[in-house]
Amino acid sequence: MSPTLDTVRVSAERAYDVTVGHGATTLLPGLVDDCARVALLHPVELTDRAEALARAIDAEVLLLCAPPGERAKTAGFLADCWDALAGAGFTRSDAVVGFGGGATTDLAGFVAATWLRGVRYISVPTTLLAMVDAAVGGKTGINLDAGKNLVGAFWEPAAVLADLDLLATLPVDDLRGGLAEMIKHGFIADERTLEIFEADPSAMLDPSSDALAEAVTRSMRVKAGVVSGDLREATSHGTQVGRELLNYGHTLGHAIERRERFTWRHGYAVAVGVAYAALLARNLGHADDAFVERHRRILGSVGLPITYDAGAYEELRATMSLDKKTRGDALRFVLLDAVAAPFIAEAPPETVLRATYEELTR
Ligand SMILES: NC(=O)c1ccc[n+]([C@@H]2O[C@H](COP(=O)([O-])OP(=O)(O)OC[C@H]3O[C@@H](n4cnc5c(N)ncnc54)[C@H](O)[C@@H]3O)[C@@H](O)[C@H]2O)c1
Ligand SMILES: [Zn+2]
Prior knowledge:
This protein is of the alpha/beta class. It folds into 2 domains: 6-169, 3-Layer(aba) Sandwich (Rossmann fold); 172-361, Up-down Bundle (Dehydroquinate synthase-like, alpha domain), CATH 1.20.1090.10. It has 13 helices and 11 strands. The protein has helices at 28-31, 47-56, 75-88, 102-114, 128-134, 172-189, 191-199, 210-229, 250-259, 266-283, 289-301, 313-322, 350-361; strands spanning 6-11, 15-21, 37-43, 60-66, 95-100, 120-125, 139-144, 147-154, 159-163, 332-338, 341-346. Strands 1-2-9-6-5-3-4 form a 7-stranded mixed beta sheet, sandwiched between helices. The chain has a two-stranded antiparallel sheet with strand order 7-8. The protein has a two-stranded antiparallel sheet with strand order 10-11. α7 (191-199) packs antiparallel against α8 (210-229) and α9 crosses α12. It is globular and about 60 Å long. The termini are far apart. 48% of the residues are buried. Residues 133, 181, 250, 266, 270 line the site of zinc ion. Zinc ion (ZN) binds at residues 133, 181, 250, 266, 270.
């Protein structure tokens, strides 16, 4: 039986297709059949699968094995990649493929963005987070000691292949981390996603389920829709909330990640941040109790955290002031009146912020 593949069209600065489904990587050879050379970046965990992909490609394939996790996103490894491309005589008509989690694809995209001022890039995300978040939106880059993602470029892929078969080996904590962003996408833009989660939470932790496949496609469509309107984060005007919408739950989430010294998965911190954002909206007179409860129920149903350390408020509040999404001194929260009804809360009263945190951690 031939696999069912869904397509999501992204039209930001250039148009490209995201293909989602079991077996999507079988399309890769056709996307590079006019190239003489292809650089395929992958993490060590995926070496066997990267070698198999390379064998299916007609061109000369340069396999570049990335250091694990965030260590792929360093100036040192970036320079190693440039040297390898120079050694192989890479030209403007060759292509770079990022085959891995978000760390690998962020780095690979930046290699493509910078080599000869930009060559064709194809993203083949292999974690749920990389599929529903990193693969769409054109953000590429590396970390510095001074902070994450400080150096980078917008460079949109020519195509994205999200092959759900690859998720079979992903640790369940990584799966959950991706689910947090999918739940976020549901609340900010897509009621149906929330209904899929509610119908059968256990199916969301099963990479072979049809429910997960549908939800991944919908989630990528949400991200595509948001970034198509505002790729470069020109951001919100008046009541219009742009790409900043994707920051739902991230104001507190980023502060928690930092407090945990990035040992928590991003999605876990976002889950707590999303639960906080729902409470904050209600406490500011927007959403109702049922909306808050729906957040807690859906996040909890897939094993994501919805509370945090009661004694951490002062530290988190100080970190939130440093968040890059704040403008000047005022804290900005993306909040919701209801599903898909966002607004920006600028400088909410400190008493409400604190009381909401106490409620979250009670
Ligand atoms: N560009 C964007 O818009 C964007 C959005 C969200 C996150 N990100 C970035 O993504 C990164 C996090 O991505 P991530 O959560 O995918 O982490 P990751 O890339 O570090 O992957 C997590 C671990 O899983 C391994 N792995 C990958 N695929 C696997 C598979 N199929 N089976 C088994 N193991 C596998 C990886 O090698 C790694 O060790 C961060 O650097 C973050 O900044 C970027
Ligand atoms: Zn996120």
